[in-house]
Design goal:
Blueprint (H helix, E strand, L loop, with lengths): L1 H12 L1 H26 L2 H16 L2 H50 L9 H24 L3 H11 L1 H48 L1 H6 L3 H54 L4 H23 L1 H19 L17 E8 L9 E8 L4 E6 L5 H8 L7 E6 L2 E2 L5 H7 E4 L8 E2 H5 L7 H10 L3 H5 L8 E2 L8 H13 L5 E4 L8 H16 L3 E6 L4 H6 L2 E6 L4 E6 L14
Parallel strand pairs: 3-10, 3-11, 6-9, 9-10
Antiparallel strand pairs: 1-2, 1-4, 4-5, 7-8, 11-12
Helix pairs in contact: 2-4, 3-4, 3-10, 4-5, 5-10, 5-11, 6-7, 6-10, 7-9, 7-10, 9-10, 15-17, 17-18
The structure holds adenosine-5'-triphosphate.
Length: 570
């Protein structure tokens, strides 16, 4: 098992290498197509030289027709190669997004840490930027490699014209660099203001009830206008500078073309160039300049694409799989909280300090404490959502955070303080948005006393929730969340303030479900802000959390006190 796990992690680190290997034939084809395509670009200048300089001398219509046919064929072939090449790049980008999109969503969502450095959306945005660079701009950077070849072509025709073309290219590169530095700051400021304005609307939309109840729409819209005004101002500043440099580059291109013709005709008048050579030089110089101008114009896309590639590559190379092998005894072992200390990142005071206790299978622990005493924090630590600063939370000898995801899903049930249901059917919600045996789902719903409510919905268990048309009451939603927490009959069930906002019937249902699971051998943790005699009657152990000082006292509720389990900690 451990050997196979090792192999898996090696493969994971190899993902980038494998992706390059899988893409190698596509890349080679794109390079070969580019070579042919750019060689075919020389056909038009050669055609002009022959048609202007040779055909009039020979007066051969056959030669003219033949040359024209060959030139047309070359142009059509070039267009076909260009279309195929761009399509291949588009498909390559799509392939990358398909291959890695789900992987990043999975990784982002399965990170068990409050200090998770990257949001899923950030990773997906980077993947999108990489795809967008490959599909749209990469072709410009492939082509710009050929620009020196075109300058060399002009140089062969006339060193003077070659030097003019080269000078224009350096000028356009300089203009590109100036454009980049002149627009960097306003772009950054505009992006920041746009994100803030977007957040204001998104945040307000989620809290529309409060907004309506307090008639806050006018204040919120004023805040949005102020923030968005900054964004519009900065964007306009960036766009004005961008437009100035783009138009200057375009104008420089026109000047180059006119310059090549003007100087070329002067050389013709001097007798050192033919007219065909002048026009051929103008076309070759035009290609070279356009390649550089287009590449300079997509400089930002290259930078974004490269940054996205480096960042995604680094993500792929981190082996996030810290799960360990488990043995069969783990499923029947006690929950052990061993010298557990925790403080949130960036905070100086500890929420919990050196807490130790053991919860055997079939035991119920009731945690009581005032607001902010750490009940939710301890619940999250118990299910492995948070990483202890010191100490461990274990099932037997395996740290809960290190349980493999499939085992964790099977062995741990969690009812958070705030009910979170997902957009989907009731059935999917109970089955954690996966596929599950319907009998088990119904059994869990019955145990949570929500079955009758669910069969009364328009499409029963297949009713979509999270839609505006179906609104379940808070306690109904909580009972669905309870059904989700218990439908796998977890080994450890953690209920964070389960009785809050519940009516008597729902509370009875909750207690009955807990009592059944307890009898079946689950270890159960229930938190409560105020003492409830009903939970107390069922409890085997108590833990009383004592406010921000993290002073703890543990008292067994049944039988004689188990002193070995008591820890009084400062
Ligand atoms: N993500 C977080 N970052 C920093 N501090 C936090 C975070 N979550 C909670 N805290 C702090 O940790 C302490 C314990 O919070 P916790 O939510 O665990 O308490 P609680 O007992 O569940 O409170 P309540 O009964 O009000 O829900 C509080 O002081 C809280 O401000």
């Amino acid at each position: 098992m451990s050997r196979s796990r090792k192999r898996l992690s090696v493969e994971k680190n190899d993902v980038v290498h494998l992706a390059w290997r899988a893409s190698s034939w596509g890349i080679i084809s794109i390079i070969v197509f580019s070579i042919f395509l750019n060689l075919l670009r020389f056909v038009t200048p050669l055609y002009i030289i022959h048609v202007f300089d040779r055909v009039p001398a020979s007066r051969s219509v056959e030669t003219l027709v033949l040359l024209t046919m060959m030139a047309l064929l070359a142009i059509i072939t070039g267009v076909a190669l260009d279309v195929v090449r761009k399509r291949m790049l588009g498909l390559w980008g799509k392939w990358i997004e398909e291959q890695f999109g789900q992987f990043f969503v999975y990784r982002g969502l399965s990170e068990k840490s409050v200090s998770q450095p990257r949001s899923v959306q950030e990773l997906l945005d980077e993947l999108y930027r990489l795809r967008s660079f490959i599909a749209r701009s990469a072709v410009r950077w492939i082509d710009v490699i050929w620009a020196p070849l075109f300058v060399w072509g002009v140089y062969l025709i006339s060193p003077l014209l070659g030097s003019i073309t080269l000078a224009a290219m350096f000028l356009v590169i300089a203009l590109g660099l100036l454009q980049e530095s002149a627009t960097r700051e306003p772009r950054r400021a505009s992006r920041k203001a746009a994100a803030e304005a977007g957040d204001i609307v998104l945040n307000a939309e989620r809290k529309y009830e409060t907004i309506s109840a307090f008639s806050m729409a006018s204040n919120i819209s004023t805040r949005w206008r102020q923030t968005t005004a900054a964004h519009l101002h900065e964007r306009e500043r960036a766009e004005a500078r961008y437009t100035f440099y783009r138009l200057t580059m375009r104008g420089l291109g026109e000047c180059l073309r006119i310059g090549l013709i003007g100087v070329g005709v002067w050389l013709f008048l001097q007798g050192s160039l033919t007219l065909g050579a002048v026009f051929a030089a103008r076309i070759l110089g035009g290609y070279g300049y356009r390649y550089v101008e287009r590449a300079v114009g997509s400089w930002r896309s290259l930078k974004d694409g490269m940054a996205a590639y480096r960042s995604l590559k680094a993500q792929l190379e981190i082996d996030h799989d810290n799960s360990v092998s488990i043995h069969s005894a783990t499923s029947s072992s006690a929950l052990v909280i061993d010298q557990l200390s925790f403080r949130y990142p960036g905070q100086t005071s500890y929420v919990l300090r050196r807490l130790s206790l053991t919860l055997n299978p079939g035991e119920l622990l009731v945690i009581t404490g005032g607001a902010g005493s750490g009940k939710t924090t301890l619940s999250r630590l118990a299910v492995g959502l948070l990483e202890p600063r010191y100490g461990q939370v274990r099932l037997g000898d395996v740290e809960v955070r290190r349980l493999p995801p499939d085992v964790q899903m099977r062995m741990i049930g969690y009812l958070p303080q705030h009910t979170e249901l997902f957009r989907g059917t009731v059935r999917e919600n109970i089955a954690c948005m996966g596929d599950a045996d319907f009998d088990n789902i119904v059994r869990a719903a019955k145990l949570a006393s929500i079955h009758e409510v669910l069969v009364g919905l328009p499409q029963g268990y297949d009713t979509l929730i999270g839609e505006e048309t179906i609104t379940l009451s808070g306690s109904e939603q909580k009972r669905i969340a309870l059904a989700r927490a218990i439908y796998r009959r977890p080994r450890l069930l953690v209920l964070d303030e389960p009785a809050a906002n519940l009516d008597r019937r729902s509370r009875n249902a909750m207690e009955a479900a807990v009592s059944e699971l307890k009898a079946a051998g689950s270890s159960i943790i229930v938190t409560q802000a105020t003492k409830s005699s009903r939970w107390n009657a069922m409890a085997d152990k108590f833990l009383i959390l004592g406010g921000r000082t993290a002073e703890l006292s543990v008292a067994p509720s049944k039988g004689s006190p188990k002193v070995s389990e008591l820890r009084r900690v400062k």
